[in-house]
Amino acid sequence: MPPKAKLTKESIKAGAMALVRERGMGGLTAKALAAKLKCSTQPIFWVFENMEEVRRAVKEEAMKVFGEYLREPQEGASAYLSVGLNYIRFAAKEKEFFKILFMSEGGEDILHAHEEMPYVLNVIESTENISGQDAQNIYEEMWMLSHGIATMIATGTAQFTDERIRRILHDVYSGIVQNVRKRK
Questions:
Q1: How many domains does the chain have?
Q2: For residue range 10-62, what is the model confidence (pLDDT) as tens digits?
Q3: Is 167 within a domain?
């Protein structure tokens, strides 16, 4: 009888993440994961109860990757412009993670429910000295714009240069902030 494969939760998650990057969430099956890990399916289920638990772990890890992208400063960009640029960069570089986090039918309101929202609101409040509902409105309007661009990039339906994305986000953000300040 061959010895048990020594797989940890972390090694299984890493294999699942790699598989999702290659094939999308639909390609994450027990058989495909076992092949990726070079083992039978049995060791996977010694660690995880079922594939749904593996998928949840992948989604949690994808959110961590997203959080890392979101916080990366971009040269020559304000903190808030960096957030938008990084959201779009995440969609371009981590297409499958972007799709499972922000383009899948999960029943949750991704505009308000994602766990990075407080960070984004804090950036608006601290850099623009705008808070409350005004900060929330700026966040929502910019998120809709950024999400549209990111979705087009993730699905390959449009291409933009980095310079054009930067200009669009800067111009729209400046206009929204200016309008908020005029109303006060």
A1: 1
A2: 999 999 999 999 999 999 999 999 999 999 999 999 999 999 999 999 999 99
A3: yes
Tell me if 98 is assigned to some domain.
Answer: yes
Helix (H) or strand (E) holding 35: helix 30-37
Phi, psi of 146, deg, nearest 5: -60, -40
In a domain, 9, yes or no: no
The mean per-residue pLDDT over the stretch 103-127 comes to: 77
Range of the domain at 133: 72-183
- Please state, for a pLDDT cut of 70, what percent of the chain lies above it: 92
Residues shown for the chain: 184
Q: Is pLDDT at 113 greater than 70 in this prediction?
A: no
Evaluate whether residue 163 is within a structural domain: yes
Return d(Cα 11, Cα 89) in angstroms, integer: 26
DSSP-assigned letters across all residues of 56-76: HHHHHHHHHHHHHHHH---TT
Nearest to 98 by CA among 148, 35, 172: 148
CB 54 within 8 A of CB 28: yes
Work out whether the CA dihedral 154, 160, 161, 164 comes out positive or negative: negative
Beta-carbon neighbour count of residue 82 at 10 Å?
20
